[in-house]
Amino acid sequence: MLYEGLVDGDVLPDAVSASLGCGVPTAVADLHPGEVVLVLDLGSGAGADVLIAARRVAPGGRAIGLDMTPEMLALARRNAAEAGVDNVELLEGYLEDIPLSDGSVDVVISNCVINLAADKSVVLQEAARVLRPGGRLAVSDVVADPGMDPRTRADMVAWTGCIAGALTEADYRSALADAGFEDVGIVETRRVHTHAVAAVIRARLGQAG
Ligand SMILES: C[S@@+](CC[C@H](N)C(=O)[O-])C[C@H]1O[C@@H](n2cnc3c(N)ncnc32)[C@H](O)[C@@H]1O
After folding, report:
1. Structure pTM?
2. Which one of 24, 67, 114, 139 would you pick to mutate in the ligand 1 pocket, going by the greatest count of ligand atoms within 8 A of its CB?
3. CA distances from 139 to 4, 128, 143, 150 (A)
4. Domain range holding 28?
5. Is residue 129 assigned to a domain?
6. Ligand 1 centroid vs 44 CA: distance in angstroms?
7. Considering only CA atoms, which of 40, 147, 151 is closest in space to residue 90?
């Protein structure tokens, strides 16, 4: 189990057991009470990561979960209430059109969602827009091997399983740089498919925003 042995998993059992993620972005987001004001989770699903983030930045900090699916938001709200997490807000909306103002968050996290977007560049540009200059990105995602074969790319089952839509590492780096991110690190965590790996992607938004 992805969250086993990590703090918070034991106190958020429903959210963690419903996770559809491919990593634990909060484990690498370097969240501390007081330091971070606002964390945004792109595609928060049942809420595991946004609830862990909310607990990590309390007291004083807050976390926002963004998801397009009302049913997932309702489930995350139930999980937040059951876990007694009250410094969290769950917003309906799209990664491609984040309903937050420019420079309004300190950290963006996401777990196995960006690869699902039709245009990942738009998502990364939106993440950069809502981050404050110098803000950071810590994402778990699927990264495709270079030269994924056309049959896998075309396979919609693989798409919904987060494989066929994934960027290669080179494409991820290029899309992050185009969006204004610097200090990019992409570290493979495990192989999830013959043609793809799960990875942790970390970056910092340039001071120019
Ligand atoms: C694979 S699940 C991952 C959920 C969660 N991050 C986790 O680790 O369990 C994908 C989630 O992202 C949401 N989602 C997918 N594409 C989205 C988009 N373009 N905008 C907003 N939410 C999206 C879905 O509704 C779903 O809850």
Report:
1. 0.93
2. 67
3. 19, 13, 11, 26
4. 9-204
5. yes
6. 6
7. 40
